[in-house]
Design goal:
With about 400 residues, the protein is α+β, with helices and mostly antiparallel strands. It is built from 13 helices and 17 strands. Bound molecules: glyoxylic acid (GLV) and manganese (II) ion (2 copies).
């Protein structure tokens, strides 16, 4: 099953979507690498005799048995952040296929429908909203708003859907697809150091921090870089630099808070041009909904003060929001029993399982990441730990089916 120290399925897709400039992988919704991965998914599923279907929101399903209500569904996503690692998403998909392959090889006959599910645009790397496929399915984002989202090249989600063969008019809450999910299990590489510290290979997720994304638009006065003296400039780049420091300082003062600016867009963006506008995207997270709201309020106040020092103004627009998720207690108890003494861990990372949790019983398994690093090419999982994750998933599927 293992080649080059990685799961065979990860080996099969190891060359897809490599990013020579950033390092790691850039696999974005309905672009070259994502389309290749969807073709790989179909071929991999067909090798197991599964029936593949794409739903109204571009999520990919592979059914073992007739699609139907009460299904045990497992999977994750195949898209990545820009320059991401090999495991975030694909590990859950590959492990789902491995676990089903083992059940089949042992002659196991499931008593309920089973599916492997890949959610579209989990990272929000192309259209800006994380977990877009699961939000659309559950009605967590308005379909008109989703259709109008634009990628960095100005292509709308509606246009991209048409090019990918998905009818944009049918995007949106999909009661039929959601109604088939009896429960959802997402296996995922751990994004943090919990399992390193515990010295264990696998954990069950307990909760996800409240989190969201906000666009900070800093406005100043565009002008000529050579003809404009330093005094009196209203340079939004300088103001944005102060804003980024303000985000860091405001969040550092609140225990447990996390806030990040990982993306800037400079308008117009010329070496000899004082910018007129800078867009900065804020990702903010805290344990509770109220704590996260308070964090963003504190950040907003500090940022407004900071940009004013350069004669600039700022507007803050919420682009997405996910409240604190507590995973299904019944499933957690069941996993604890079946996996004897498995640890439970909270996470600061968002997941489709967290979005689904409001609609159907959902759960997650984490596999140890010995670097503790994720959303980076340094993300890793040892082959033996991946096998322990598949063992756990197989055990759970056997008990739930
Ligand atoms: C997804 O990985 C997120 O936590 O943003
Ligand atoms: Mn991720
Ligand atoms: Mn992920």
């Amino acid at each position: 099953m293992l080649a080059h120290g990685m799961l065979a399925g990860l080996d099969e897709i190891a060359g897809t979507g490599r990013d020579a400039r950033r390092g790691g992988y850039s696999r974005h919704l309905w672009q070259g690498a994502d389309l290749e991965l969807r073709a790989w998914f179909t071929e991999r599923a067909e090798r197991l005799g599964l029936m593949v279907a794409t739903d109204r929101n571009g999520n990919l399903w592979a059914w073992w048995g007739e699609p139907g209500p009460g299904a045990v569904v497992t999977g994750s996503h195949l898209d990545s952040v820009p320059g991401g690692g090999a495991y975030d998403g694909p590990l859950g998909v590959v492990s789902a296929f491995e676990a089903i392959g083992r059940l089949q090889a042992s002659g196991f006959v499931p008593s309920r429908p089973v599916a492997v599910l890949v959610f579209a645009e989990e990272e929000g790397s192309r259209f800006g909203i994380a977990c877009l496929g699961s939000r659309l399915m559950t009605g967590g984002i308005d379909a008109d708003r989703a259709r109008a989202l634009v990628d960095p090249d100005g292509v709308t989600l509606a246009e991209a859907a048409v090019r990918a063969g998905v009818d944009p008019e049918r995007l949106g809450a999909d009661r039929e697809a959601l109604g088939r999910i009896g429960l959802f299990i997402e296996l995922h590489v751990e994004q943090g150091r919990g399992l390193i510290d515990l010295g264990r290979p696998v954990a069950v997720a307990s909760s996800i921090l409240a989190h969201g994304r906000w666009r900070l638009t800093v406005t100043g006065q565009g002008n000529h870089a050579g003809a404009t003296l330093m005094p009196g400039r209203r340079d939004p780049m300088v103001a944005a630099a102060r804003a980024v420091v303000a985000v860091h300082e405001a969040s550092s003062a609140i225990p447990g808070a996390r806030a990040t600016v990982g993306r800037l867009e400079v308008v117009p963006g010329g070496t000899n041009v004082i910018a007129s506008t800078v867009h900065a995207w804020l990702d903010a997270r805290c344990e509770t909904d109220a704590g996260t709201r308070a964090l963003v309020a504190a950040i907003t106040a500090r940022v407004e003060e900071a940009v004013g020092l350069n004669g600039c103004s700022v507007s803050v627009t919420e682009e997405s929001w996910t409240g604190t998720v507590t995973f299904d207690h019944g499933l957690r108890e069941c996993f604890g029993r079946e996996l004897g003494g498995v640890p439970f861990l909270p996470t600061g990372a968002g997941h489709d399982a967290g979005v689904l949790a409001a609609s159907v019983p959902s759960a997650m398994l984490f596999v140890r990441n010995p670097t503790g690093i994720s959303h980076s090419p340094e993300e890793f999982a040892e082959a033996d730990d991946c096998v322990a994750g598949i063992d756990a998933l197989e055990t759970l599927l056997r008990s739930l089916l």
